[in-house]
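Tutorial, part two.
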Amino acid sequence: RESDLTKHIKNKHLTFRTSPNKNVATSKLYKEGYTNEENCWDEGLAWLSTVDATEPPPFRQTLFLKVQWKLRAEVIDLFADILEATAEASKQAKRDEDIESSSFDSTPFWLLLILFEQLVLAPIPREKSITSSKSKSKQSTTATIYRRIRMFRAGRLKELFDESRLVISKSPAQFSSGKESAAVSMEKAAQLAADNDNYRTANARLTKATPVARITSTLLPHLQKLYPPVLSRHRRRIISSRRRASNRLHNQHRI
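Running the prediction step on this input gives:
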């Protein structure tokens, strides 16, 4: 009978939860002893209830391709923990009075899956764009991502979101127009190589796209002074014939 089937599924196959969202986030993400950050999941879950996850980030590419080796494992472990937390939060509340409670709503954890890459792997803002501590702008890419992972596990989501919004990518039109000329951009690239003691690359960047100078009416007189006057064709013929006759006479004497 249908009632028996429903009872069987409820007793044997459905799982329930009694822990609210904060406890789920603490057990799956915060992990006591993993970080010395303060548990801020009350604020983090409250912020998730107000954020608009449909708004695209101001950048087009994240740092995912720069994540390698041990750091990549840390990023993947964090995402796997979010999946586990989402699966746990998606279970139905065991008590009927908790079913409609916001503390048992799984929506915040599904939003974490959407916002994860934006919050953890957003490009590093330029130094002049960061208004908080100076140490944040001095960190390498690896150190920055490790710091963001710790903040994410602690529930400091709004801070990560605000930091990601400091990054502003240029539009295709801005890239095509460009405030800097190609020559200025090339000089900066060469200077960067020179700063890294890579003088061969710096010289190659400076000389690879050297433009060809056009010979104009203004430039022509200066070029003409670099060469001696051209001999007439008639005089060249006389000199050549005399030289040939001298060579023949010299050869006859040798014989």
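Residues 120 and 148 are 5 Å apart (CA to CA). In part three we will examine how such features are distributed along the chain.
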